[in-house]
Amino acid sequence: MKNRALPLLLSAVLGVAAFIVLLVRHPGRLEDAVEREPAAAPAAESRAAPAAPLTPQPSGPAREPAPQAPTGELDGHVISSFTREGIEGAELTWSSPRGAHSARSGVGGRFTFRPPEPGTYQLASATADGYLSFGPEWGKSPVSVTFEAGERVRGVTVELDPAPKLVGRVVDVKGQPVPGATARVLVDRADELALFPIAERFTADERGEVHFQAAPYSTLEAFHESHGSGSERIEPGAKNVTVTLEPWPLDAGPRVSLTGRVRFMGAAAAGARVRVASALSAFPKVYGAQDGYRGLTDDEGHFELTDLTPGLYDVSAHLLGTAPAHQFDVAVPSVKPLVLELGSGPKLFGRVSDETGASVPAFSVQLAWRKAPLERLVVVEMHVVDPNGRYQIDGVAPGDYALEVRALGFVPGAAGASLQAGRDTELNVTLGRGVRAAGTVHTEGTGRPVPSARVGIEGRDDAVTVTDSTGAFVLDGVPPGGFSLQAAAAGHNTKVMGVTEPRAPISVELSALAPDAGPKTELVGLGLVLRGRGDALVVGLVMPGAGGDAAGVKLGDEVVGVDGRPVAELGFEPAIRAIRGPAGSTVELKLRDRTVTAVRKKISN
The dihedral of CA 440, 443, 444, 446: what is its sign? Predict the structure, then answer.
């Protein structure tokens, strides 16, 4: 099985049907010296993403008077998340206690929706031919839209993921087809496909082939009891994907299941999202699929996740409006069904505004429980359209939390909150505009422009764009002090590079793929895959020949400081930025038991 970079999500979220552009998904990536926490793990529950579909255009959403709309109005576009082109004929459905209400996109994907009366509605579904549908269980959408009399919110975009028909081929280590192999598409946001489920499991035919639909950057996993297992990421534009099975590890054991029930106040919790991932305490040992496992509870609150590798797992259950449930270090197979108890708790509410005090009318909210200095579990993700910039989160367990708010065209805003039982908390957030960055993407060696390249701020799902026919791009909401830029395009390797002067023109060179080779990620760093645990960054992979390897960094080492600064104080992303730097420069890593100095090098993997 190829070593592949794991995707970074705000809530993350890959394989989603639709999502708020506030939280555009990034391609899977290999982080410089660090790879982000696996999106599937409960500790990084879905960055980003958010699978909700509303998002503003690059200039950002706007609120304006609309006397001709006595019940309020929402104007926007439905577009492809990858080509950024409008989707004509998409069906959007909003729900309220009084029923369902629909709108259809026209030329260029434009739509206008005026509700029958003012109030708060949920975006219940978004569908279009050739795209994955957004359709959570009825009444449980993470996207809310508030309409006020005589008020219009415009510049909101619904993004849908293309879902092309694909052919998967399962082969053994000799390249021979494996008929009868079991294959499945790993779907991160299964709860958002509840109304429009897609086929996820398949059996390879006599040619070792399976035929399926999936969004770009999804993962196809396959296994056979005699040949082992493997997985492969689905690249944008791909029509075929080959999964090579590698023999089971000697200690893998048979495939097993995890069953259980999710309850709330003693009653069955139907439609709860259950996530299972290799236990963080065991890292760098990883049990089962690298992307983890996901499922939904039935009407009786029961769930069953099958085809797991025996091992130690972290399990979580989430349901909007309730406090999530977590159980760590669960041994699978379990001697008895697991019981997860959702809780109740206080409300967290507030207002999002810009630096002038004006309301930001469309934004995404992520609330993460601060389990440890470098461990945060995302417990709530929601996407809000409200003319007054208001949000409210119900049912949050008492504890320490980090709130992050993102809106297109703004630098993300964050605030900490300590929630107490029986006491609702108000937390307002102000977003800064940042600066605009512009540049071009071209092919290394030829200078030819690269159209349709995806360019974004690394780690910023709300700051992604696509180059035009001349290879030009524009990014809004850029931190004035600099950022890491990531660019990817069909037929080219992905590149991650530092930008220290965002206001100056940016030139990005992408190298063409080598013949018969898969895409690589090129960057400058130490060649380490790191994951936050407790007060340290744990090394999960050391790339041979890279700077970390040359300095003697080993698998399982714990990085507690960078250039004299504790990583627990820096935080995860600032610690990563501190590890990065120009090729040939050095960085001092304080490990748990020793200190090493490493040279940053160019990496291609």
Answer: negative
Sequence-distant (6+) residues with CB within 8 A of 270 are 137, 297, 298, 299, 300, 301
pTM summary value: 0.83
Q: Mind listing the pLDDT tens digit for each residue in 336-350?
A: 899 999 998 899 999
Per-residue burial over 211-245, b = 16 or more CB atoms within 10 Å of its CB, e = otherwise: ebbbbbbbbbbbbbeebbbbbbbbebeeeebebbb
CA dist 462 and 26 (Å) reads: 10
Q: Is 3 exposed, middle or buried (0-12, 13-18, 19+ CB in 10 A)?
A: exposed
Measured CA to CA, the distance from residue 221 to residue 184 in angstroms comes to 5
| 182-186: strand order across its sheet | 201-203, 182-186, 219-224, 228-233
Q: How wide is the angle at C-alpha 403 spanned by C-alphas 400 and 407, nearest 5°?
A: 175
pLDDT digits (tens, 9 = 90+) for 312-330: 999 999 998 899 999 999 9
Domains of the chain, start order: 52-160 (2.60.40.10), 256-342 (2.60.40.1120), 348-431 (2.60.40.1120), 435-522 (2.60.40.1120), 526-604 (2.30.42.10)
Q: Is 23 strand, coil or helix?
A: helix
Residues in the chain: 605
Going from the first residue of the chain to its last (605 residues), give the mean pLDDT of each consecutive group of 10, the final group possibly shorter: 29 26 28 37 31 50 91 93 89 91 95 95 93 85 93 90 92 95 80 74 95 87 89 83 86 81 95 92 89 88 91 93 93 91 93 95 93 91 93 92 92 92 94 94 96 88 86 92 90 89 95 80 89 95 93 96 96 88 93 96 84
Establish how many alpha carbons lie within 13 A of residue 323's alpha carbon, considering only the half-sphere containing its beta carbon. 17
Q: State how far the Cα of 490 lies from the Cα of 505, in Å rounded to an integer.
A: 23
Measured CA to CA, the distance from residue 219 to residue 12 in angstroms comes to 15
Rounded distance, CA 503 to CA 105, Å? 36
